[in-house]
Amino acid sequence: MAWVCLGIAGLFEVLWAYAMKRSEGFTRPWPTAVTLLAMLASFGLLSWSMRSLPLGTAYTVWTGIGAVGAFLLGTLVLGEAATPLRVLAALLILGGLVLMKLSSPG
Pick the residue with more confidence: 59 or 105? Predict the structure, then answer.
């Protein structure tokens, strides 16, 4: 269950990053509200998952999901560049997440 919560926490991290981008420096109220609520949900679920997962594993997987998810959202939704080097970097992060999961208990 901790891994499921950690995955959901990572998705909330992607959501708050996207909403923060849309908030235009916290000048738009609805995206700002979504940012803050998604942050609370993300941190809360991360904290809950850390009850049984090691700190290094939980934090690394959480930030990795956020990083790869934000990259995908940026390229697919916001039209940001998906250069070969950026794609390789995202794949390397994803590979690290898989290795972290395989090397951790739970």
Answer: 59
